[in-house]
């Protein structure tokens, strides 16, 4: 299954806020009592599926990519759900998004694909690159790169739903010539940028592999 390129508001209407997919928000609508009643009667399978879809659309992953991350997390020490979120949060495209260099994860992925980003001084054009503590994320010293990121930072700061501040595992410094981000440590669970019940995602895949 390829990455989603359809209407984004349709997804957040069904799954809730997905800041990595879009910065748009839904207007307030009057609740339909019938729909609310049906929502409360969701099956466990439906609930697990929605949490899985939420994770996939927020981080912009294909089904195969997400399954691969679940398997890696399952082999690591610690809680599988927490390790899964840490793996996804430490992707380069997500780090750029959390630094505010791009307004969405697809926008961050485009910056990486178009070779605007360096990690520890080396050009990296792989959005799934896994960042590590003490990695230094910088932008190319080019006018086009600076303009793209400056516009993104200015745009997000003007909007009511912009990120309030950087998560504690990241820092960002700007100069006349480039932007520099530092990954200080592995992200803590409470700082993950998505409201998600990761255990249900793990349960979804564990039941899929058992059947």
TrEMBL record:
<dbReference type="InterPro" id="IPR018079">
    <property type="entry name" value="Ribosomal_uS4_CS"/>
</dbReference>
<dbReference type="GO" id="GO:0003735">
    <property type="term" value="F:structural constituent of ribosome"/>
</dbReference>
<dbReference type="GO" id="GO:0019843">
    <property type="term" value="F:rRNA binding"/>
</dbReference>
<dbReference type="GO" id="GO:0015935">
    <property type="term" value="C:small ribosomal subunit"/>
</dbReference>
<feature type="domain" description="Small ribosomal subunit protein uS4 N-terminal">
    <location>
        <begin position="3"/>
        <end position="89"/>
    </location>
</feature>
<dbReference type="InterPro" id="IPR022801">
    <property type="entry name" value="Ribosomal_uS4"/>
</dbReference>
<protein>
    <recommendedName>
        <fullName>Small ribosomal subunit protein uS4c</fullName>
    </recommendedName>
</protein>
<dbReference type="InterPro" id="IPR036986">
    <property type="entry name" value="S4_RNA-bd_sf"/>
</dbReference>
<dbReference type="GO" id="GO:0042274">
    <property type="term" value="P:ribosomal small subunit biogenesis"/>
</dbReference>
<keyword id="KW-0150">Chloroplast</keyword>
<comment type="function">
    <text>With S5 and S12 plays an important role in translational accuracy.</text>
</comment>
<dbReference type="GO" id="GO:0009507">
    <property type="term" value="C:chloroplast"/>
</dbReference>
<dbReference type="GO" id="GO:0006412">
    <property type="term" value="P:translation"/>
</dbReference>
<dbReference type="Pfam" id="PF01479">
    <property type="entry name" value="S4"/>
</dbReference>
<comment type="subunit">
    <text>Part of the 30S ribosomal subunit. Contacts protein S5. The interaction surface between S4 and S5 is involved in control of translational fidelity.</text>
</comment>
<dbReference type="InterPro" id="IPR001912">
    <property type="entry name" value="Ribosomal_uS4_N"/>
</dbReference>
<keyword id="KW-0694">RNA-binding</keyword>
<comment type="function">
    <text>One of the primary rRNA binding proteins, it binds directly to 16S rRNA where it nucleates assembly of the body of the 30S subunit.</text>
</comment>
<dbReference type="InterPro" id="IPR005709">
    <property type="entry name" value="Ribosomal_uS4_bac-type"/>
</dbReference>
<keyword id="KW-0689">Ribosomal protein</keyword>
<feature type="domain" description="RNA-binding S4">
    <location>
        <begin position="90"/>
        <end position="154"/>
    </location>
</feature>
<dbReference type="InterPro" id="IPR002942">
    <property type="entry name" value="S4_RNA-bd"/>
</dbReference>
<keyword id="KW-0699">rRNA-binding</keyword>
<dbReference type="Pfam" id="PF00163">
    <property type="entry name" value="Ribosomal_S4"/>
</dbReference>
<comment type="similarity">
    <text>Belongs to the universal ribosomal protein uS4 family.</text>
</comment>
<keyword id="KW-0934">Plastid</keyword>
<keyword id="KW-0687">Ribonucleoprotein</keyword>
């Amino acid at each position: 299954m390829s990455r989603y390129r359809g209407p984004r508001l349709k997804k957040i209407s069904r799954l809730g806020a997905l800041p990595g997919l879009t910065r748009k928000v839904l207007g307030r609508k009057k609740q339909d009592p019938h729909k609310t009643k049906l929502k409360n009667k969701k099956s466990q399978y439906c609930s697990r599926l929605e949490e899985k879809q939420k994770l996939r659309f927020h981080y912009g992953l294909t089904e195969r990519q997400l399954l691969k991350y679940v398997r890696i997390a399952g082999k690591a020490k610690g809680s599988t759900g927490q390790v899964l979120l840490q793996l996804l949060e430490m992707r380069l495209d997500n780090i750029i998004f959390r630094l505010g260099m791009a307004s969405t994860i697809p926008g961050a992925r485009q910056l990486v694909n178009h070779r605007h980003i360096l990690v520890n001084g080396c050009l990296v054009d792989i959005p799934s690159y896994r960042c590590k503590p003490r990695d230094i994320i910088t932008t190319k010293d080019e006018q086009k790169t600076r303009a793209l990121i400056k516009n993104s930072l200015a745009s997000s700061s003007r909007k009511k739903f912009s990120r309030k501040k950087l998560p504690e595992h990241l820092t960002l410094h700007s100069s006349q010539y480039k932007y520099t981000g530092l990954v200080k440590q592995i992200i803590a669970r409470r700082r993950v940028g998505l409201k998600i019940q990761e255990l249900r995602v793990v349960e979804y895949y564990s039941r899929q592999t058992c059947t």
